[in-house]
From TrEMBL:
EC number of the protein: 2.7.3.9
Name of the molecule in the record: phosphoenolpyruvate--protein phosphotransferase
Localization of this protein: Cytoplasm
Catalytic reaction(s) noted: L-histidyl-[protein] + phosphoenolpyruvate = N(pros)-phospho-L-histidyl-[protein] + pyruvate
SMART domains in alphabetical order: GAF
Domain of life: Bacteria
The organism of origin for this protein: Qipengyuania pacifica
Reported cofactor(s): Mg(2+)
Length: 756
């Protein structure tokens, strides 16, 4: 008998039981009898989650006196392991499994084989369905699938209290534990509070068992047709080139969308008696279980693709389309999601979106880059989101400490408010310095600029009092777009940015994509093969290869800056010839525009970023060609220390205040003395007060930082005597102490310079 036929037989008999007027316990007893009989199994048992433990609610084959007596904690024994991991176990010899736990009151010692599946409700296990047999054997795949389908129906029946008496409080909902703390990886620092909102609201499947199997099948067919049309439309919208990773991605999606095996499994689930929604969810549950067993990251990514398509299909068939962004945020919110794309994040109302918590996420993800620019704290790699967070829960996000508190009590809320109030007080004090020029105590003017990447970021220029934009990341427009931004679209953005800046300077960095900033419409096959994508085919390297990409950007920048000063900065330069090649592209486009009597910039300033350590040894050759050079401390530091900043195990292994990085930066500063080149820092290091103090002491007079850091750095500058800090840093670097950070901190404390 097939899995579908076996499951349909069980569901048909379950339907007959549900139609009866007997009490819940009698129905449960009959359910285990039917399952055991249908699968020719000597034992069938149902455990349900009650008061935090799995309680034996019904059994056929075990000692009936163990019912409502045997209890297992989540993670305890085979049953507890199934519930904890939401996985299926199929064992020929149960006692050989390391998690086996013997319960003498059940009389199960004579049974060898064991199979169990979780009873899942809202993505968390609320029970376990088990079968056992005297002879050692693994259950057939058709039997396991029948069990899984049955467990899905049991979930609905239990949720509707058709198998449980009203007085039996099964733990269907998330336990409302006060001060429940989840930990994760800090992706963007910050404090926030608000109500929990899920990016994709949960799809509620109201009916699991089908009344008309053929009608359900037709609903799935229509949903498949609509989904395939959507995927085909995405393919037609791809504008850049004939090949590339976007083609591979779309082909993978098409492969799954048109995969007969996937659609057949959904049809088989419908054949077993499930509705269209339940059938898709049933196959999706199976996919999730397989994903947990996959160690190969490439295969895991492909399974994630199938998961995404399953969600798309489920939303189409249920008619529950849209995200929380399309519905609108009505109050301050902390957004929870498995993952997010940058464009999805930008759809949210910034006034209401206070923070983001991700089930996945990495330090180099596009959404993190955009969130940092938006000033939205983000916590990633947080497990247990769906099982512990309820929509509307009060949430405190402390991304500084890598934790999120659910349902905080009054004491915790008050402590948070006190801490948050101090932060606001400091911000208010910094805001008062908006119009104050940052001179040191001995009269040296320090240039404090801000970093930006979005059109909306420019409002922070006036609010922060920054001297200009020292780094405008042009790649943001590329990262949030599904297709290559056309030249006219780029030009409009650059013109808007220059208009918003007024008479303040803006430094445009040419596009830094590729490597760990892959975009779907460029061929990143080389980057995919790179073991170290941050050091791979990216930034200027990629732009010079794809000359059409850089040409279009050059034209857009030149036209946008017509009649004004244009400052262009090339990223990831490692040798002078790369800078020369990038500059030549701009000069060629400038000539093109002049030949056509177009208005061009009055002045063009060319600069580059120092991120590749090798560039420091050829600055004498490059400096005469430069107007400015900006040190990108994020990439530079990871290259110097051979420590991937995206690796959480290495993220704290290097220190910007170590002798190695400070001596390197000091040598760069010294090498440019006498050269007519403006030297600055545009990495995260410059926005940290203690690190900025060290930079001032080794010769740096220009900093480009996040808008939020402008006030704190201006306040710091006004407390510093450059002569003093320069002398102190020279002593430290000549004979480094064991802890440079501690020494610098003590020096600052003695001069009443405060640090967070």
């Amino acid at each position: 008998m097939s899995a579908a036929a076996s499951a349909r037989q069980i569901l048909t008999r379950l339907h007959e039981i549900m139609a009866g007027r007997t009490h819940a316990q009698h129905k449960l007893d009959r359910v285990v009898e039917i399952i055991a009989e249908s699968l020719l199994s000597e034992v069938c048992s149902i455990y349900l989650l009650r008061e935090g433990a799995l309680e034996l609610y019904a059994t056929q084959g075990l000692n009936p006196e163990a019912v409502h007596v045997t209890r297992l904690a989540i993670g305890e024994g085979l049953t507890g392991t199934i519930a904890k991991n939401i996985e299926t176990l199929n064992l020929a010899e149960a006692k050989a499994h390391p998690d086996f736990a013997y319960r003498p009151e059940t009389g199960e010692e004579k049974f060898h084989s064991f199979a169990g599946v979780p009873i899942v409700y809202r993505e968390r296990a609320v029970g376990v369905l088990c079968v056992q047999h005297v002879d050692p054997r693994r259950y057939e795949e058709v039997e396991i699938e029948a069990l899984q389908t049955t467990a899905m129906v049991l979930s609905e029946l239990i949720a509707h209290k058709e198998l449980v008496d009203d007085e039996e409080q099964i733990d269907l909902e998330i336990a409302h534990v006060e001060n429940d703390v989840l930990e994760g990886l800090t992706l963007v620092k910050g404090l926030a509070a608000g109500k929990a909102v899920f990016h994709q609201p949960r799809i509620e499947i109201d009916q699991v068992v089908a009344e008309d199997i053929e009608a359900e099948r037709q609903r799935v067919y229509r949903a498949f047709d609509k989904m395939r049309d959507q995927i085909d439309t995405l393919g037609r919208e791809a504008e850049f080139g004939k090949g590339g990773e976007h083609i591979e991605v779309l082909e993978t999606y098409k492969m799954f969308a048109y995969d007969e095996g996937w659609s057949r499994r959904i049809n088989e689930a419908i054949d077993s008696g499930l509705t269209a929604e339940a059938a898709i969810e049933r196959v999706q549950q199976r996919t999730r279980m397989r994903m947990r067993e996959i160690d190969d990251p490439l295969l895991a990514d492909r399974m994630h693709d199938l998961e995404d398509l399953s969600n798309r299909l489920l939303r189409i068939v249920s008619g529950q389309l849209g995200t929380a962004a399309t519905q609108g945020l009505r109050r301050d919110a902390i957004l929870f999601a498995r993952n997010l794309g940058p464009a999805e994040l930008l759809e949210y109302d910034r006034r209401r979106l206070k923070g983001v918590v991700l089930d996945e996420g990495s330090l180099t993800a596009h959404v993190v880059i955009v969130a940092r620019a938006m000033g939205v704290p983000v916590l990633g790699r947080v497990t247990g989101i769906r099982s512990r967070v309820a929509e509307g829960d009060e949430v405190i996000l402390d991304a500084d400490r890598g934790m999120v508190t659910l349902r905080p009590n009054q004491q915790v809320l008050e402590a948070f408010e006190t801490r948050f109030a101090k932060t606001r007080e400091k911000q208010a004090a910094y805001a008062e310095l908006r119009e104050v020029e940052p001179f040191t105590r001995d009269g040296t003017r320090i240039t404090v600029m801000m970093n930006a990447g979005l059109r909306d970021d420019m409002s922070a220029l006036a609010m922060s009092g920054a001297d200009g934009v020292g780094l405008f990341r042009t790649e943001f427009q590329f990262l949030v777009s599904s297709t290559l931004p056309q030249r006219d679209r780029q030009m409009r953005l650059y013109r808007d940015v220059l208009d918003a800046a007024g008479d303040k300077p803006v430094v445009f960095r040419t596009v830094d994509i590729g490597g760990d900033k892959a975009v779907p419409y460029l061929d990143n096959a080389v980057a995919e093969r790179d073991e170290n994508p941050a050091m791979g085919w990216r930034a200027l390297r990629l732009s010079l290869e794809r000359e059409g990409l850089l040409k279009a950007q050059a034209r857009a920048l030149l036209e946008a800056a017509a009649g004004r000063t244009l400052s262009v900065m090339f990223p990831m330069v490692s040798e002078p010839w790369e800078f020369d090649a990038g500059r030549q592209v701009f000069e060629d486009q400038l000539k093109f525009l002049r030949d056509r009597r177009k208005v061009v910039p009055e002045t063009i300033e060319y600069g580059c970023m120092l991120e590749v350590p090798a560039l420091a040894d050829v600055l004498d050759l490059l400096a005469p060609k430069l107007s400015f050079i900006s040190v990108g401390t994020n990439d530079l530091t990871q290259f110097l220390f051979a420590a991937d900043r995206a690796n959480p195990k290495l993220a704290e292994r290097y220190d910007w205040l170590s002798p190695a990085i400070l001596r390197y930066l000091a040598r760069v500063s010294q090498s440019l003395i006498g050269q007519n080149v403006r030297l600055g820092v545009c990495g995260e290091m410059g926005g940290r007060r203690l690190e900025a103090l060290a930079l001032l002491g080794i010769g740096y007079r220009r900093l480009s930082i996040t808008p939020a850091a402008v006030g704190p750095i201006k306040e710091l500058v006004r407390k510093v005597d450059l002569g003093e800090i320069t002398e102190f840093m020279n002593r430290l670097l000549a004979s480094p102490p064991p802890n440079m950070r501690a020494e610098l901190q003590q020096w600052a404390n003695e001069r009443d310079i405060e640090f967070d």
